Amino acid sequence: MAGGAPNGKECPGLMTVVECLPPLLAVIGGFLAEAPQDIVHLFYTSSKFVARQASFTLDDLWHDMYEHRWGAFHEALSFQERQEDWLCLYKDTLSGHTEFMLEVFDRQKKEGFAMSAMPARVHYDSREDSYVAWYISASEVPPELISSQEKHRLRFCPASVREPLWHPETPAVVSELPCERLWCAFKERARCCVRRRSPSQDLSSKDPVGYPYSVLAGIDGLKVGGAVELQWKMQEQSPFGWWYGQLEELRSDCDGKLATATVIFPHFQTTSQWYRLAVRFGDAEVRDCMLGGKSGGLRPVPEGEKTQWMQHFPEKPIQV
Q1: With contact defined as beta carbons under 8 Å apart, do 242 and 115 qualify?
Q2: Into how many domains does the chain fold?
Q3: For the chain, where are the alpha helices, taking DSSP H only?
Q4: Which residue, 197, 200, 203, is CA-closest to 237?
Q5: Distance separating alpha carbons of residues 174 and 21, to the nearest angstrom
Q6: Cβ contact 319:271 at 8 Å
Q7: Is residue 24 part of a domain?
């Protein structure tokens, strides 16, 4: 019998759970977190009583749904440590009214940007079920539409880079301004906007203060043979991107503040001019690069981040 029990007694339904065991609503909602429409149907349109009883868990459910759908956006918001109304934030993000500073792997899938992570202003377009990335650049660059199926191409600024910018004793930027002010500038650039900026409004290539125009200082944690990311940019007024490579050699100065590294980029053929590069780094200075452009800092890549990079490694070495 539909809806019946083997002994002939009626099985308890949703209203019984709501009346007697409201904490179970959080468990039920957890199973539905991947489908917002099911949450809306169950907790908002079924009855006012259910909505009232479930109110204690709804914000947590919208938080979980937001994190599941827009992981990189969620990480950016978590970094701000602000109290959020996750339902309103979900609506605003879905409607394209919120924008985030993220880094995009393999910009526009061009060979010249292979194995790089470039800064961009990103919002979600529900009509296309895609992310729209407006790249920050000294020159005008058309936006890229990134399918939600490729959301692994997006990341928020890695935690190992945020940490040095937090501590005032660490000279992690290119300016002599107080580190606290620079950190505020970094957080301002990383924050979610209430209203999305128009495409013509850049996050400002004219203002060199703050992320992603800052140079990472220090030489700690680097190991020969390990994976690294190098800050590099082609134009003076452009922000830095991160470029994946492998540390072939490291020579530190006597004072331990500066070092010269030889980095190989294994996604290029060994005969390419871009395969091997020697860089000077450690003191937060922007330097001319031997192959053109400007170089900044160098950081080791943790194993988890290396796995993320390897998702973008080309099938065949690139010859440029």
Answers
A1: no
A2: 3
A3: 14-20, 24-31, 36-40, 48-53, 55-69, 71-80, 86-94, 159-166, 179-190, 303-310
A4: 203
A5: 57
A6: yes
A7: yes
Do 135 and 98 sit in the same domain of this protein?
yes
Q: What angle do CA 155, 109, 215 make, to 5 degrees?
A: 50
pLDDT digits (tens, 9 = 90+) for 273-300: 999 999 999 998 999 999 899 999 999 9
Q: Distance between CA 128 and CA 212 in Å, rounded?
A: 28
- Is the pTM higher than 0.70? The answer reads yes
The token pair that represents 92 in the structure block: 């605003």
CA 124 – CA 155 distance, rounded (Å): 14
How are beta strands 294-300 and 287-288 bridged, if at all? antiparallel
Listed in order, strand segments (DSSP E) in the chain are: 100-105, 116-125, 130-135, 144-147, 154-155, 227-233, 241-252, 259-264, 276-281, 287-288, 294-300
Question: Are 304 and 235 part of one and the same domain?
Answer: yes
Write out pLDDT tens, residues 7-32.
Answer: 544 445 555 444 444 444 444 444 45
Which domain does 264 fall in, by range?
A: 215-310
Three-class SS state of 287: strand
Question: Can you tell me the distance from the alpha carbon of 173 to that of 108, in angstroms, rounded to the nearest whole number?
Answer: 28
Instruction: Calculate the dihedral angle through the C-alpha atoms of 61, 189, 282, 164, rounding to the nearest 10 degrees.
Output: -40
Here the tokens at position 309 are 């990079």
